[in-house]
Amino acid sequence: MSSPRPADAPRGPGGGPLRVQVGILTFRRPALLATLLPQVLTQVEELRAWTQGPAGVLVVDNDPDGSAGEVCAALADVRYVLEPTPGIPAGRHRALEESADWDLLQFIDDDEEPAPAWLVTMVRAWAEHDRPVVVAGSVRTRYLTPPSPWIVAGQFFERRQPATGTPLDVAASGNMLIDVPEVRRLGVQFDRDLGLHGGSDTLFSQDVHRAGGRLIACREGAIYDLVPPEHSNRRWALQRAWHLGQSRSFMALYAEKSPSRRRRMRVRLLLGGVVRFAQGCLQTGLGLVLRHDRLHARGLRWVHRARGVMAGALGEATPKYPRES
């Protein structure tokens, strides 16, 4: 016999039990996935106990070789699908398609870990803030090995943490809760044409906002982004800053369909990049003179991000997630 349903537990759109699916995207990281899945399954059980409704886990494997299949087969209550089309947009789109019969889809990636009560907290935020189309949870950094003081001073892996309930017009998908029926009603989907380029979450969330859907932040619904040793170094951090700038320009131009407005957008991006590049150079130089790690590191971060913005504005579109195959 099931335990009584708590009075504060939300119900589905039609008044029935709320149906929640957790979607995990993975690409050739079976060891990380094997660590993540038991943690997510524990949180799914916590959610079921609260809502008294169905909850499940979907793994979307973006590796054509199906490297995640064996890990998933070893665990009950994990549904596995193979999405051979390369790129995060294809994986996110497949997860959304596979969640057509669910009320909510909560994303998490294979290189992330959930904080305690993460899933219940995200669903509670959705219910208590009038059921927005998207709830964007916070992403915190967890270094797998201690980073250098220079990396920490430059805040290369830090992200904004808006207060819970803060309205948003853009959100990242690494910790995103989606109201599936509302997204389908709005006709919004992840753009698979982006392939290996970053920014599909930016475009998706902006499309939701433009279509009239609400997006809110949930600071307490946290996941940890796991930074491996090979990423917590100066070279990789500066390359990441460049890619973030390039992706910003690429997505701004990609979303603008009018040729005349696209030209104006290109000029604005270039001018903004030049200004930020100059500011970054000045701050970098000042940091060197004063031997101040924070000034030096943040100045270089601005320089490389500005270079990326200008490269994207000029049409350079290097994939953010290159693959060997």
Alpha-beta classification = alpha/beta
Strand content: 15-25%
Number of helices: 10
CATH class of the largest domain: Alpha Beta
Poorly predicted runs of 5 or more residues: none
Q: What separation lies between the terminal Cα atoms? A: 50 Å
Which CATH architecture of the largest domain is right? Alpha-Beta Complex
Shape field? globular
CATH topology of the largest domain: Spore Coat Polysaccharide Biosynthesis Protein SpsA, Chain A
| Elements, N to C (H/E) | EHEHEHEEHEHEEHHEHHH
On the 0 to 100 scale, the average pLDDT is: 93
Count of all domains: 2
Please summarize what this structure is.
With 325 residues, this protein is α/β, with parallel strands linked by helices. Helices cover 45% and strands 18% of the residues. Strands 1, 2, 3, 4, 5, 6, 7, 8 and 9 form a 9-stranded mixed sheet that branches.
Account of the 3D structure:
The protein is an alpha/beta fold. It has ten helices and nine strands. It has helices at 30-51, 69-73, 88-97, 118-128, 149-154, 180-186, 200-210, 234-255, 259-290, 293-313; strands at residues 20-26, 55-61, 78-82, 104-109, 112-114, 134-143, 167-168, 176-179, 215-227. Strands 1, 2, 3, 4, 5, 6, 7, 8 and 9 form a nine-stranded mixed beta sheet that branches. Helix 8 (234-255) runs parallel beside helix 10 (293-313). The protein is globular, with a radius of gyration of 21 Å.
